[in-house]
Design brief:
Elements lengths: L19 E9 L3 H11 L5 E4 L15 E3 L17 E3 L4 E6 L4 E6 L4 E4 L1 H15 L2 E3 L2 E9 L2 E9 L2 E12 L6 H5 L16 E10 L9 E6 L5 E7 L4 E9 L4 H14 L7 E11 L8 E2 L2 E3 L15 H21 L4 H29 L4 H10 L2 H10 L6 H10 L4 H21 L9 H19 L6
Helix pairs in contact: 1-2, 1-5, 5-6, 6-8, 6-10, 7-9, 10-11
Length: about 475
Protein backbone atom coordinates (compact mmCIF):
# COMPACT_ATOMS: atom_id res chain seq x y z
CA UNK A 1 0.00 0.00 0.00
CA UNK A 2 2.67 2.50 1.01
CA UNK A 3 6.32 2.78 1.99
CA UNK A 4 5.27 2.46 5.62
CA UNK A 5 3.42 -0.84 5.27
CA UNK A 6 5.15 -3.90 6.68
CA UNK A 7 5.92 -6.27 3.82
CA UNK A 8 4.87 -9.92 3.80
CA UNK A 9 8.41 -11.31 3.95
CA UNK A 10 8.94 -10.08 7.50
CA UNK A 11 10.72 -6.85 6.57
CA UNK A 12 9.43 -3.30 6.35
CA UNK A 13 10.55 -1.27 3.37
CA UNK A 14 12.87 0.55 5.77
CA UNK A 15 14.63 -2.76 6.47
CA UNK A 16 13.30 -3.42 9.98
CA UNK A 17 12.67 -7.00 11.09
CA UNK A 18 9.02 -7.64 11.96
CA UNK A 19 9.78 -10.53 14.35
CA UNK A 20 10.57 -7.94 16.99
CA UNK A 21 9.77 -4.25 16.86
CA UNK A 22 10.27 -1.34 19.21
CA UNK A 23 8.07 1.74 18.66
CA UNK A 24 6.93 4.80 20.52
CA UNK A 25 3.27 3.81 20.27
CA UNK A 26 1.53 0.60 19.21
CA UNK A 27 -2.09 0.98 18.10
CA UNK A 28 -4.27 -2.12 17.87
CA UNK A 29 -7.00 -1.81 15.26
CA UNK A 30 -7.26 0.31 12.11
CA UNK A 31 -10.76 1.57 12.88
CA UNK A 32 -11.80 5.16 13.44
CA UNK A 33 -10.30 5.60 16.91
CA UNK A 34 -7.11 3.75 16.02
CA UNK A 35 -6.51 5.67 12.80
CA UNK A 36 -7.13 9.07 14.39
CA UNK A 37 -4.84 8.22 17.30
CA UNK A 38 -2.14 7.00 14.92
CA UNK A 39 -2.45 10.04 12.65
CA UNK A 40 -2.31 12.44 15.61
CA UNK A 41 0.88 10.87 16.98
CA UNK A 42 2.64 10.16 13.68
CA UNK A 43 2.09 13.71 12.43
CA UNK A 44 4.36 14.88 15.26
CA UNK A 45 7.16 12.61 14.07
CA UNK A 46 6.75 9.70 16.49
CA UNK A 47 7.11 6.06 15.49
CA UNK A 48 3.62 4.54 15.38
CA UNK A 49 2.76 0.97 14.37
CA UNK A 50 -0.88 0.03 13.70
CA UNK A 51 -1.62 -3.68 14.03
CA UNK A 52 -4.68 -4.75 12.02
CA UNK A 53 -6.04 -8.30 11.87
CA UNK A 54 -7.54 -7.92 8.38
CA UNK A 55 -5.68 -7.97 5.10
CA UNK A 56 -4.69 -4.75 3.41
CA UNK A 57 -7.55 -5.23 0.93
CA UNK A 58 -10.19 -5.94 3.63
CA UNK A 59 -9.06 -3.35 6.17
CA UNK A 60 -11.78 -0.80 6.87
CA UNK A 61 -14.57 -3.22 5.97
CA UNK A 62 -16.66 -3.57 9.12
CA UNK A 63 -20.30 -3.95 10.08
CA UNK A 64 -21.84 -0.55 10.69
CA UNK A 65 -25.20 1.15 10.35
CA UNK A 66 -23.44 3.78 8.19
CA UNK A 67 -25.38 6.65 9.77
CA UNK A 68 -23.09 9.43 10.90
CA UNK A 69 -24.19 12.02 13.45
CA UNK A 70 -21.90 15.08 13.53
CA UNK A 71 -20.71 14.54 9.97
CA UNK A 72 -19.11 17.97 9.86
CA UNK A 73 -17.26 17.66 13.15
CA UNK A 74 -14.04 15.68 12.97
CA UNK A 75 -10.53 16.22 14.31
CA UNK A 76 -7.96 17.74 11.98
CA UNK A 77 -5.42 14.89 12.17
CA UNK A 78 -7.05 13.42 9.05
CA UNK A 79 -8.28 16.16 6.68
CA UNK A 80 -12.07 16.30 6.56
CA UNK A 81 -11.90 16.61 2.78
CA UNK A 82 -10.44 13.10 2.60
CA UNK A 83 -13.72 11.72 3.97
CA UNK A 84 -15.96 13.43 1.41
CA UNK A 85 -15.86 10.55 -1.05
CA UNK A 86 -17.43 8.26 1.57
CA UNK A 87 -20.34 10.64 2.35
CA UNK A 88 -22.85 9.12 -0.05
CA UNK A 89 -26.00 10.77 1.35
CA UNK A 90 -25.84 14.15 3.04
CA UNK A 91 -29.56 14.89 2.52
CA UNK A 92 -30.77 12.93 5.57
CA UNK A 93 -32.11 15.27 8.22
CA UNK A 94 -34.54 13.34 10.45
CA UNK A 95 -35.45 10.03 11.98
CA UNK A 96 -38.54 8.12 10.92
CA UNK A 97 -39.90 5.90 13.68
CA UNK A 98 -42.32 3.27 12.38
CA UNK A 99 -44.67 2.01 15.12
CA UNK A 100 -46.99 -0.61 13.59
CA UNK A 101 -48.73 -1.31 16.91
CA UNK A 102 -50.05 2.26 16.87
CA UNK A 103 -50.43 2.42 13.07
CA UNK A 104 -48.32 5.55 13.05
CA UNK A 105 -45.00 6.96 11.89
CA UNK A 106 -43.13 9.56 13.93
CA UNK A 107 -40.98 12.04 12.03
CA UNK A 108 -38.31 13.18 14.50
CA UNK A 109 -35.89 16.02 13.65
CA UNK A 110 -32.28 15.19 14.40
CA UNK A 111 -30.10 18.09 15.59
CA UNK A 112 -26.74 18.67 13.91
CA UNK A 113 -25.28 17.52 10.62
CA UNK A 114 -26.20 14.02 9.43
CA UNK A 115 -24.89 11.78 6.68
CA UNK A 116 -25.09 8.17 5.59
CA UNK A 117 -21.74 6.83 4.47
CA UNK A 118 -20.14 3.97 2.60
CA UNK A 119 -18.33 2.55 5.63
CA UNK A 120 -15.73 0.59 3.64
CA UNK A 121 -14.83 3.64 1.57
CA UNK A 122 -14.66 5.64 4.78
CA UNK A 123 -12.40 2.96 6.28
CA UNK A 124 -10.04 3.20 3.32
CA UNK A 125 -10.00 6.99 3.61
CA UNK A 126 -9.01 7.10 7.28
CA UNK A 127 -6.31 4.45 6.75
CA UNK A 128 -4.91 6.57 3.93
CA UNK A 129 -5.07 9.62 6.17
CA UNK A 130 -3.14 7.91 8.98
CA UNK A 131 -0.61 6.58 6.48
CA UNK A 132 -0.05 10.01 4.97
CA UNK A 133 0.50 11.36 8.49
CA UNK A 134 3.37 8.88 8.89
CA UNK A 135 1.86 5.83 10.63
CA UNK A 136 3.04 2.35 9.67
CA UNK A 137 0.56 -0.49 9.20
CA UNK A 138 0.99 -4.18 9.90
CA UNK A 139 -1.87 -6.15 8.32
CA UNK A 140 -2.80 -9.84 8.73
CA UNK A 141 -1.79 -9.46 12.36
CA UNK A 142 -3.69 -11.01 15.27
CA UNK A 143 -2.75 -9.71 18.71
CA UNK A 144 -2.73 -12.56 21.22
CA UNK A 145 -1.35 -11.13 24.43
CA UNK A 146 0.02 -8.06 26.16
CA UNK A 147 3.46 -7.69 27.70
CA UNK A 148 3.56 -6.17 31.18
CA UNK A 149 6.14 -5.08 33.71
CA UNK A 150 4.14 -5.16 36.92
CA UNK A 151 0.92 -3.31 36.09
CA UNK A 152 2.55 -1.36 33.24
CA UNK A 153 1.75 -2.45 29.69
CA UNK A 154 5.01 -2.44 27.70
CA UNK A 155 4.00 -4.07 24.44
CA UNK A 156 2.23 -6.86 22.62
CA UNK A 157 2.61 -10.40 21.35
CA UNK A 158 0.97 -11.17 18.02
CA UNK A 159 1.08 -13.43 15.02
CA UNK A 160 1.36 -12.07 11.52
CA UNK A 161 0.43 -14.58 8.82
CA UNK A 162 1.13 -17.29 11.36
CA UNK A 163 4.56 -15.99 12.32
CA UNK A 164 5.27 -14.60 15.83
CA UNK A 165 5.67 -10.86 16.24
CA UNK A 166 6.68 -9.03 19.40
CA UNK A 167 6.16 -5.29 19.67
CA UNK A 168 7.68 -3.22 22.46
CA UNK A 169 5.95 0.13 22.91
CA UNK A 170 6.17 3.11 25.22
CA UNK A 171 2.38 3.32 25.05
CA UNK A 172 -0.17 0.82 23.74
CA UNK A 173 -3.53 2.11 22.47
CA UNK A 174 -6.38 -0.39 22.36
CA UNK A 175 -8.64 0.36 19.42
CA UNK A 176 -9.56 -3.30 18.92
CA UNK A 177 -13.30 -2.76 19.32
CA UNK A 178 -15.95 -4.18 21.61
CA UNK A 179 -14.93 -6.98 23.97
CA UNK A 180 -11.26 -6.41 23.17
CA UNK A 181 -8.93 -9.31 23.88
CA UNK A 182 -6.26 -6.91 25.17
CA UNK A 183 -8.38 -6.13 28.21
CA UNK A 184 -8.90 -9.82 28.89
CA UNK A 185 -5.18 -10.50 28.72
CA UNK A 186 -3.90 -7.49 30.66
CA UNK A 187 -3.73 -7.52 34.45
CA UNK A 188 -5.48 -4.23 35.26
CA UNK A 189 -6.57 -5.06 38.81
CA UNK A 190 -4.28 -2.54 40.51
CA UNK A 191 -5.15 0.32 38.14
CA UNK A 192 -8.12 2.64 37.70
CA UNK A 193 -8.97 1.05 34.35
CA UNK A 194 -12.65 0.08 34.29
CA UNK A 195 -12.99 -3.69 34.68
CA UNK A 196 -16.72 -3.56 35.53
CA UNK A 197 -17.53 -4.79 32.05
CA UNK A 198 -19.85 -7.71 31.29
CA UNK A 199 -21.21 -9.44 28.21
CA UNK A 200 -24.74 -8.20 28.92
CA UNK A 201 -23.64 -4.57 28.45
CA UNK A 202 -23.11 -5.16 24.74
CA UNK A 203 -25.35 -5.83 21.79
CA UNK A 204 -24.95 -7.60 18.49
CA UNK A 205 -25.64 -5.94 15.18
CA UNK A 206 -26.22 -7.40 11.73
CA UNK A 207 -26.63 -5.54 8.47
CA UNK A 208 -27.08 -6.12 4.76
CA UNK A 209 -26.45 -3.73 1.89
CA UNK A 210 -29.60 -3.90 -0.21
CA UNK A 211 -30.06 -2.45 -3.71
CA UNK A 212 -33.54 -1.58 -4.99
CA UNK A 213 -34.69 -0.56 -8.46
CA UNK A 214 -36.74 2.52 -7.54
CA UNK A 215 -35.70 5.26 -5.12
CA UNK A 216 -37.23 4.88 -1.68
CA UNK A 217 -39.54 7.73 -0.70
CA UNK A 218 -37.71 8.12 2.65
CA UNK A 219 -34.26 8.71 1.19
CA UNK A 220 -33.89 11.77 3.45
CA UNK A 221 -34.59 9.85 6.68
CA UNK A 222 -33.08 7.32 9.05
CA UNK A 223 -35.79 4.68 9.48
CA UNK A 224 -36.20 2.86 12.80
CA UNK A 225 -38.68 0.13 13.68
CA UNK A 226 -38.93 -1.83 16.94
CA UNK A 227 -38.77 -5.60 16.90
CA UNK A 228 -41.49 -7.52 18.69
CA UNK A 229 -39.27 -7.59 21.75
CA UNK A 230 -37.82 -4.56 23.50
CA UNK A 231 -34.36 -6.05 23.12
CA UNK A 232 -33.97 -4.92 19.51
CA UNK A 233 -34.82 -2.61 16.64
CA UNK A 234 -34.60 -2.66 12.86
CA UNK A 235 -33.07 0.11 10.81
CA UNK A 236 -33.10 1.21 7.18
CA UNK A 237 -30.48 3.85 6.39
CA UNK A 238 -30.29 5.07 2.76
CA UNK A 239 -26.72 5.36 1.47
CA UNK A 240 -28.44 6.61 -1.68
CA UNK A 241 -32.03 6.47 -2.83
CA UNK A 242 -31.47 2.95 -4.14
CA UNK A 243 -28.72 1.56 -1.87
CA UNK A 244 -29.95 0.84 1.65
CA UNK A 245 -28.14 -0.30 4.77
CA UNK A 246 -30.74 -2.61 6.33
CA UNK A 247 -29.97 -4.04 9.73
CA UNK A 248 -30.85 -4.63 13.34
CA UNK A 249 -29.32 -4.39 16.78
CA UNK A 250 -30.21 -6.58 19.75
CA UNK A 251 -28.95 -7.33 23.23
CA UNK A 252 -26.54 -10.21 23.62
CA UNK A 253 -29.06 -12.17 25.72
CA UNK A 254 -31.39 -12.64 22.74
CA UNK A 255 -31.26 -15.43 20.14
CA UNK A 256 -29.56 -13.81 17.13
CA UNK A 257 -31.08 -15.95 14.39
CA UNK A 258 -34.64 -15.31 15.59
CA UNK A 259 -34.10 -11.56 15.39
CA UNK A 260 -32.29 -11.75 12.04
CA UNK A 261 -35.37 -13.54 10.75
CA UNK A 262 -37.42 -10.55 11.97
CA UNK A 263 -35.34 -8.37 9.65
CA UNK A 264 -35.66 -10.74 6.70
CA UNK A 265 -39.41 -11.00 7.24
CA UNK A 266 -39.76 -7.23 7.30
CA UNK A 267 -37.70 -6.90 4.13
CA UNK A 268 -39.98 -9.41 2.38
CA UNK A 269 -43.11 -7.54 3.47
CA UNK A 270 -41.97 -4.04 2.45
CA UNK A 271 -43.03 -3.30 -1.14
CA UNK A 272 -40.04 -0.99 -1.77
CA UNK A 273 -37.71 -4.01 -1.41
CA UNK A 274 -39.49 -6.23 -3.93
CA UNK A 275 -36.89 -7.66 -6.34
CA UNK A 276 -34.01 -6.20 -4.30
CA UNK A 277 -30.54 -7.74 -4.31
CA UNK A 278 -28.10 -8.02 -1.43
CA UNK A 279 -24.40 -7.31 -2.04
CA UNK A 280 -22.86 -7.51 1.43
CA UNK A 281 -23.63 -9.07 4.83
CA UNK A 282 -21.76 -8.44 8.08
CA UNK A 283 -22.29 -8.65 11.84
CA UNK A 284 -20.49 -7.19 14.83
CA UNK A 285 -20.71 -6.48 18.55
CA UNK A 286 -20.90 -2.98 20.01
CA UNK A 287 -21.25 -1.48 23.49
CA UNK A 288 -24.62 -0.22 24.69
CA UNK A 289 -23.30 0.98 28.03
CA UNK A 290 -21.84 4.07 29.61
CA UNK A 291 -18.22 4.97 28.72
CA UNK A 292 -15.56 3.36 30.87
CA UNK A 293 -15.05 5.23 34.15
CA UNK A 294 -11.35 5.17 33.34
CA UNK A 295 -9.80 4.04 30.08
CA UNK A 296 -6.17 4.43 31.17
CA UNK A 297 -3.60 2.29 32.95
CA UNK A 298 0.19 2.64 33.06
CA UNK A 299 1.35 2.55 29.44
CA UNK A 300 -2.14 1.78 28.17
CA UNK A 301 -5.22 3.58 26.83
CA UNK A 302 -8.46 2.30 25.28
CA UNK A 303 -10.37 4.24 22.62
CA UNK A 304 -13.65 4.04 20.72
CA UNK A 305 -15.73 0.88 21.08
CA UNK A 306 -12.98 -0.63 23.24
CA UNK A 307 -13.79 2.01 25.88
CA UNK A 308 -17.57 2.22 25.48
CA UNK A 309 -17.43 5.44 23.46
CA UNK A 310 -20.77 4.85 21.72
CA UNK A 311 -24.13 6.57 22.05
CA UNK A 312 -25.96 3.77 23.89
CA UNK A 313 -29.41 4.72 22.58
CA UNK A 314 -28.52 4.83 18.86
CA UNK A 315 -25.31 2.80 18.58
CA UNK A 316 -23.60 5.71 16.84
CA UNK A 317 -19.89 5.90 17.57
CA UNK A 318 -17.89 7.18 14.61
CA UNK A 319 -17.47 10.85 15.54
CA UNK A 320 -16.91 10.03 19.21
CA UNK A 321 -14.26 7.48 18.29
CA UNK A 322 -12.46 10.04 16.11
CA UNK A 323 -12.22 12.48 19.00
CA UNK A 324 -11.23 9.75 21.45
CA UNK A 325 -8.39 8.85 19.09
CA UNK A 326 -7.27 12.46 18.87
CA UNK A 327 -7.42 12.97 22.65
CA UNK A 328 -5.53 9.73 23.30
CA UNK A 329 -2.94 10.61 20.66
CA UNK A 330 -2.32 14.06 22.10
CA UNK A 331 -2.05 12.64 25.60
CA UNK A 332 0.38 9.95 24.40
CA UNK A 333 2.62 12.66 22.93
CA UNK A 334 2.65 14.61 26.18
CA UNK A 335 3.40 11.47 28.18
CA UNK A 336 6.25 10.40 25.91
CA UNK A 337 7.78 13.87 25.97
CA UNK A 338 7.61 13.99 29.76
CA UNK A 339 9.04 10.50 30.15
CA UNK A 340 6.06 9.51 32.33
CA UNK A 341 3.42 7.11 30.98
CA UNK A 342 1.68 6.36 34.29
CA UNK A 343 -2.02 6.76 35.01
CA UNK A 344 -1.73 10.30 36.30
CA UNK A 345 0.21 11.32 33.18
CA UNK A 346 -2.55 9.89 30.96
CA UNK A 347 -5.51 11.04 33.07
CA UNK A 348 -6.35 14.16 31.10
CA UNK A 349 -7.50 11.87 28.29
CA UNK A 350 -10.28 10.58 30.57
CA UNK A 351 -11.29 14.10 31.50
CA UNK A 352 -11.52 15.29 27.90
CA UNK A 353 -13.71 12.35 26.88
CA UNK A 354 -16.05 12.84 29.86
CA UNK A 355 -16.28 16.57 29.22
CA UNK A 356 -16.96 16.17 25.50
CA UNK A 357 -19.52 13.34 25.46
CA UNK A 358 -18.89 10.81 28.23
CA UNK A 359 -21.34 12.32 30.69
CA UNK A 360 -23.98 12.70 28.00
CA UNK A 361 -23.65 9.05 26.99
CA UNK A 362 -23.85 7.94 30.64
CA UNK A 363 -27.11 9.87 31.01
CA UNK A 364 -28.47 8.35 27.81
CA UNK A 365 -27.71 4.88 29.15
CA UNK A 366 -30.24 5.52 31.91
CA UNK A 367 -33.00 5.23 29.28
CA UNK A 368 -31.55 1.91 28.16
CA UNK A 369 -31.77 0.74 31.76
CA UNK A 370 -35.39 1.84 31.92
CA UNK A 371 -36.21 0.06 28.65
CA UNK A 372 -35.21 -3.30 30.11
CA UNK A 373 -38.04 -3.03 32.64
CA UNK A 374 -40.75 -1.70 30.30
CA UNK A 375 -43.15 -3.69 28.14
CA UNK A 376 -42.81 -3.06 24.40
CA UNK A 377 -46.38 -1.77 24.19
CA UNK A 378 -45.78 0.70 26.99
CA UNK A 379 -42.51 1.79 25.43
CA UNK A 380 -44.03 2.51 22.02
CA UNK A 381 -46.91 4.35 23.68
CA UNK A 382 -44.35 6.51 25.43
CA UNK A 383 -42.68 7.30 22.09
CA UNK A 384 -46.00 8.24 20.52
CA UNK A 385 -46.87 10.56 23.41
CA UNK A 386 -43.63 12.55 23.48
CA UNK A 387 -43.23 15.64 21.28
CA UNK A 388 -40.74 14.97 18.47
CA UNK A 389 -38.28 17.73 19.27
CA UNK A 390 -38.07 16.64 22.91
CA UNK A 391 -37.64 13.00 21.95
CA UNK A 392 -34.78 14.00 19.64
CA UNK A 393 -33.10 15.88 22.47
CA UNK A 394 -33.49 12.90 24.78
CA UNK A 395 -31.99 10.53 22.21
CA UNK A 396 -28.93 12.63 21.46
CA UNK A 397 -28.23 14.99 24.37
CA UNK A 398 -29.21 12.85 27.34
CA UNK A 399 -31.60 15.51 28.64
CA UNK A 400 -34.59 17.55 27.56
CA UNK A 401 -37.02 20.06 29.08
CA UNK A 402 -40.73 19.39 29.47
CA UNK A 403 -43.01 22.23 30.53
CA UNK A 404 -46.45 21.74 32.05
CA UNK A 405 -48.20 22.01 28.67
CA UNK A 406 -46.04 19.27 27.16
CA UNK A 407 -46.51 17.06 30.23
CA UNK A 408 -50.29 17.36 29.90
CA UNK A 409 -50.09 16.60 26.18
CA UNK A 410 -48.02 13.51 26.87
CA UNK A 411 -50.41 12.36 29.59
CA UNK A 412 -53.46 12.74 27.34
CA UNK A 413 -51.71 11.01 24.43
CA UNK A 414 -50.71 8.03 26.55
CA UNK A 415 -54.02 7.24 28.29
CA UNK A 416 -53.72 3.77 29.81
CA UNK A 417 -49.93 4.02 30.10
CA UNK A 418 -49.67 6.76 32.70
CA UNK A 419 -47.56 4.61 34.99
CA UNK A 420 -44.87 4.40 32.29
CA UNK A 421 -45.04 8.15 31.71
CA UNK A 422 -44.65 8.84 35.42
CA UNK A 423 -41.68 6.49 35.61
CA UNK A 424 -40.16 8.21 32.59
CA UNK A 425 -40.34 11.67 34.17
CA UNK A 426 -38.88 10.35 37.42
CA UNK A 427 -36.12 8.62 35.47
CA UNK A 428 -35.46 11.77 33.46
CA UNK A 429 -34.83 13.77 36.63
CA UNK A 430 -32.35 11.15 37.80
CA UNK A 431 -30.65 11.12 34.37
CA UNK A 432 -30.24 14.90 34.67
CA UNK A 433 -28.75 14.44 38.14
CA UNK A 434 -26.35 11.86 36.75
CA UNK A 435 -25.32 14.22 33.95
CA UNK A 436 -24.57 16.93 36.52
CA UNK A 437 -22.46 14.46 38.47
CA UNK A 438 -20.38 13.62 35.39
CA UNK A 439 -19.60 17.31 35.05
CA UNK A 440 -17.68 16.88 38.30
CA UNK A 441 -15.54 14.03 36.96
CA UNK A 442 -12.32 13.97 39.02
CA UNK A 443 -9.10 15.58 37.86
CA UNK A 444 -6.82 12.87 39.29
CA UNK A 445 -6.88 9.08 39.69
CA UNK A 446 -6.92 9.18 43.49
CA UNK A 447 -10.33 10.91 43.50
CA UNK A 448 -12.03 8.38 41.22
CA UNK A 449 -13.26 6.00 43.93
CA UNK A 450 -15.13 8.73 45.81
CA UNK A 451 -16.71 10.00 42.60
CA UNK A 452 -17.79 6.45 41.71
CA UNK A 453 -19.48 5.95 45.10
CA UNK A 454 -21.59 9.06 44.57
CA UNK A 455 -22.41 8.02 41.01
CA UNK A 456 -23.39 4.52 42.11
CA UNK A 457 -25.76 5.97 44.71
CA UNK A 458 -27.58 7.80 41.90
CA UNK A 459 -27.68 4.58 39.87
CA UNK A 460 -29.22 2.72 42.83
CA UNK A 461 -32.08 5.22 42.80
CA UNK A 462 -32.44 4.75 39.05
CA UNK A 463 -32.77 0.98 39.47
CA UNK A 464 -35.30 1.48 42.26
CA UNK A 465 -37.37 3.93 40.19
CA UNK A 466 -37.37 1.88 36.99
CA UNK A 467 -37.58 -1.57 38.55
CA UNK A 468 -34.72 -2.65 36.31
CA UNK A 469 -32.02 -5.08 37.34
CA UNK A 470 -28.64 -3.53 38.07
CA UNK A 471 -26.61 -3.18 34.89
CA UNK A 472 -23.24 -2.47 36.52
Amino acid sequence: MTAREVDGDGESSAGKRTASRSVDVAVVGAGTAGCYAAATIASEGYDVLVLERKTREEAGHIACGDALKGAGEFPDAIPRSKLDRAMTNTEVDHGRFELPEHDTVLEIPVPGELAVIDRWEYGRAIIEGADEAGAEFCYDTVVQDVIQDGNRVTGLKARRKGEPLTVEAGITIDGAGALSILQDKADLADTTFDTNVTYSQFCSAYREIVHVEQEVEWKDALVFKPTKRAAGYLWYFPRTGTEINAGLGFQMNEEPMELVEDLKRDLRERPEFEGARVTDKLGAALPTRRPYDSAVAPGFMAVGDAAGHVNPTTGGGIAGAAYAGEYAGEQAIRAIESGDTGEAALWDYNERVMDHYGGRYAALDVYNVMATAVDVSDLTSLLVSLPGENLAEALYSGSTDFGLKLKLKAAIGSFGHWGTILDFYRTKRLADELLDHYERYPDRPSALAGWQRERDAIMDRIYETTGAEAKY
